[in-house]
Amino acid sequence: GERLLEERNSIVDELEILAEGFENSRRKTKLIKVLPAYGIFKELISYYGVSQLVNLAVEKKINSWKDFLQILPLRAKRSSWVNVGGQLLPRASLDTMVKQLHSGKIKSWNEVHAFYQKNGDLYKDQKLQHAFASLLEINKLTPSKFNRKVFKKLLEQAIATREWMLKAIYDSRAKDHHNEFRRMVYETQEQMDKVLGKLDENTFINQQEMEFQQFKSQANNLIRLFKL
């Protein structure tokens, strides 16, 4: 299956591909548009990993490739996570809490809340480990193969992905302004702008544009600092 997806073999479109656990139903859950979705998900997972590395380097004020390598979680392994009341926890942490409840080690709500708080404090580092492990796995890399050349390529790809995301957001919002069937309910452009707001003043689009430019600047700065 993976080979067919990686090769973008058109035979995938003819296959019945089912998912488990997506619906609370006995019926089959059939996945559609699998080929394009597979490529997009790979791209987004890679972006997720790179963005966390960029955040790490910026936060720690890392100025060299050597220093950067020293703070990377090179032994990180990807594990499953669960949403517990709105808080994301590694499955292993949840299993630990359940065992401690059964054994009586955790005896009160205060101790449960303390467990949540402790894991909340660990979340940032756990997320970094998950992101880096995911980045390596999705790109079929080992820690030893994560070098300057690879990181530069990943940074450039991440910039392109973030730009694609921005364009998709803009195009989605622009439909309301350019679709003739939507425009026909307004007598003038001014009337439409009052109801929908001007496209170039859309707060969400402008926020995304600002975040893209910031990410692009940070990524390019790392390329320069690390001499990639």
Keywords:
mainly alpha; 9 helices; two-stranded antiparallel ribbon; about 230 residues
How far apart the termini lie comes to 35 Å
Major β-sheet annotation: 2 strands, antiparallel
Per DSSP, the total helix count is: 9
Instruction: Give the integer mean of the pLDDT values.
Output: 89
Order of helices and strands: HEEHHEEHHHHHH
Rg, rounded, reads 23 Å
Tally of strands: 4
The strand order across the widest sheet is 1-2
Structural class: mainly alpha
Principal-axis shape: globular
Q: Helix proportion of residues, in percent?
A: 55-70%
Beta-strand content estimate = 5-15%
Which regions are unreliable across 5 or more consecutive residues at pLDDT < 50? Answer: none
Secondary structure layout:
Layout: H1 2-6, E1 18-19, E2 29-30, H2 34-59, H3 65-71, E3 81-84, E4 87-90, H4 91-103, H5 109-138, H6 148-178, H7 180-183, H8 189-196, H9 203-225
Antiparallel strand pairs: 1-2, 3-4
Helix pairs in contact: 2-5, 2-6, 2-9, 6-9
